[in-house]
Design a protein that fits this description.
The complex is a heterodimer of chains A (389) and B (222). By secondary structure, chain A is of the alpha+beta class. Chain A folds into 2 domains: 137 residues, no CATH class; 230 residues, no CATH class. Helix content of chain A is 52%, strand content 16%. In chain A, the strands form 3 sheets. In chain A, strands 1, 3, 4, 5, 6, 7, 8, 9, 13 and 14 form a 10-stranded mixed β-sheet that branches. In chain A, strand 3 and strand 4 form a beta hairpin. The two termini of chain A are 56 Å apart. In chain B, helix 3 packs parallel to helix 5 and helix 5 runs parallel beside helix 6. Chain B has a single domain, classed as Rossmann fold, CATH 3.40.50.300. In chain B, 34% of the residues lie in helices and 23% in strands. With 222 residues, chain B is α/β, with parallel strands linked by helices. Chain B has a 5-stranded antiparallel β-sheet with strand order 5-4-1-2-10, covered by helices on one side. A 5-stranded parallel β-sheet of chain B has the order 6-7-8-3-9, with helices on both faces. The chains are: A alpha+beta (389), B alpha/beta (222). Chains A and B meet through helix 1, helix 11 and helix 12 of A and helix 2, strand 6 and helix 3 of B.
Chain lengths: 389, 222
Amino acid sequence: MNALYLAFSYLRYHWSRSLVLVLVAALIMFVPVATQTLLSTSERALVARGEATPLLLGSRGSQLDLTMAALYFSDERPDPVAMREVEAVWDSGLGVPIPVHTAFSSSGFRIVGTTLDYFDFRELTPARGRVLSILGDAVIGSDVAATLGKGVGDTLVSAPENLFDLDGVYPLEMPIVGVLAPTNTPDDQAIFVDVKTAWVIQGIGHGHEDVVTAADVAAGTAALANAAVVQYQRITDDNIDSFHFHGSQDDFPVSAVIVVPNDTRSSTILKGRYLDSESLTQLIEPAGVIQGLVDRIFRIKSLLDVVTAIIAVAAVAAVGLAVFLSYRLRAREIATAVKLGAQKGMVLRLLAAETVTLVLIAGSIATIGAAIVWRNADAWVGWLLALGS
Amino acid sequence: MVRLENVTFGYETGGFRLRVPEFSLDDGERVAVVGPSGSGKTTLLNLIAGILTPEAGRVDVAGTEVSGLSDAARRQFRASKIGFVFQDFALLDYLSARQNIFYPYRITPALVLDDAARERTEQLAAACGIGDKLDRHPSALSQGEQQRVAICRALVTQPKLILSDEATGNLDPDSKARILDLLFEQASEAGAAVLAVTHDHELLPRFERVLDFAQFRQGAAA
C-alpha cells in the first residue's frame, strides 16, 4: 500500500507527464482491440447483408457497384434496368422481385423507392407511425430521424437532380408517415418511398390541374392547353387523383431488383436465364461479391496489422524509455530510501508500483474505450458502411 | 552508543583505505567529524549506519554489532535506530513536507505509521517552526525550511543516533547556526547522540568533541 501511495503521489505531482504516458499506453492497448472489433463487426455486417440478399438483378456492368447501390444505397449509380425485368421475374413464378430505386436523395440521405415487399423481406417494422400506403408517403430509417430531428407528421423534400437526363425533375415534398426501428444496417440511413413516388420525383409521373375543364368545353376553348397549368410539388388528398404516368410502366427505370427465389431450384433456373453475356442485364449473388470485397479488406487488414504492430513496438519502446528515464530521475530517491533503511524488495516495489499504476490506469481507460467500441460497434459499423451513400 | 574497534575498509574500485583503531560516541554526545574532502568522513557514517560493511573490525551501535548483521537486518536496524540528515536535504519533490517526514514509515515494515507518529510529526514541526507549512511541497519552502523538514524526518522515528552529513553545507551563514542549534535541541530532547560531518569550522565550538579524520586515512597502497 505504501509503495502504491508513493507511486500515486509521484504520478499525481508529475500529472502532465503521467497523463501523456497513460494516454499513450492506453492507445497502445486500445487501438488494436478497437480495430479488431470494428473490422470483425464490419465483416459480419457486410457478409450478413450480402447473405440476406439471395439474388440481385441489374444492368450488366460492375457487380460491386450494383451490390453497393442496391444493398448499401451508396453513391455508385449502376445503369438502370426497366420495370419489365421485374414483371419477367413475376411471370416466371420462380421468385419475388423487389425493385429498388436509389437515384435520389434528401438532406444527404438516400431515397429508396421500393415496394412493401422490401419491408417484409428485410423485416423492417415502424417504431412510430405506419408503413407506406399512398403515393408520396415517406418512411424514414432511425438514423435519418435522429440526424434530421424529424418524425411522423414532418415532411422531407427531395433534392432536385436530373439523373436520367429527363426533363421536369422537381423537388417533391413528402410527408413522413413512419419511422423504422433501428436495425444497425444501411436501412437506418434510408428514406423509403413507393417506387412510384420515386418516379414522380424523376418526373415520369406528375399531377397537375386539368388542362381541359368543363368550363373550357362550354366556352369553346377546350382545344388549347393553358400555359398557367399548375404542376404540383406535393401530393395531397385533393390532388392525388390527378397524378398519372406517361408511357408504359414496363419502361420505367429502377436501379436494381432484389430477387427472392422460391427455393434453390428456382434460384438455379433464374441464374441460368441471365447467363447470356450479350444480355443487358445480369443476375448476381451479392454474398459472393461481398465476400470478395471482405477478402480484399482483410488482405489490407493484414498489412494494417503489421503497421499497427510496428507502431506498437515503437510506442512501447518510447514508453519504456520514458519509464526508464523516470527511474533514472528517481535514483536519488532510491539512494535516500536505501540510506533510511528501505528493504531491497521495497525499492523494487517502489519502482514497479509506478509502472503498475500507469499500466492499470491505462488499461482501465483502454478497457472502457474497448467496451464502448464493442457496445456500439454494430451502430458505428452501420454508419461507416453507409458513409458516402 | 557507538563503538568502532580496529575497523578497516577499502572500496573495491581502489582509492583510499580507512583504518580506525578505535572510536566511540557516548549516549547523547555531540561530536563533529572534520577533515579534508575524500578523507572518508562520509564512509565512516556509512559504516556506522551499516550501509557499508568493514573488511575487518567491529562496529557496535546501541549495543548491537552492526557489522555482524545480515543485509536485511542492517536495513531494519538502520530504519529503527538511526536518523539521517543530508547536505542536500534529500526531500522528495512530489510529497508534501508532512509526507516527507512520514517517508521512513512508507519504505520499511520496521516502522508503523500510527497516531503517535503523526502526533510526534506535528509536535516536531511546531518546535522547528514549520508547523504551518506541512502541506507545502519542498519547492514552496526555503532551504532553511527544507532542512528543518529533514531534521523532523530524522527525529520522528525516535532514533538514538543522528548521523548528519554536511547538514548545514547548503545553508547561508545565518541559517547554519540556527539549524545546528535546532538539531541539537531536538536531539537532546529525544535523548539522541549526534555525529556530524562538517566543513564549517566556525560551528565546531558548538560540539562537545571534534574528531579530525585525517589521522584515519591511509594511501591506496597502504
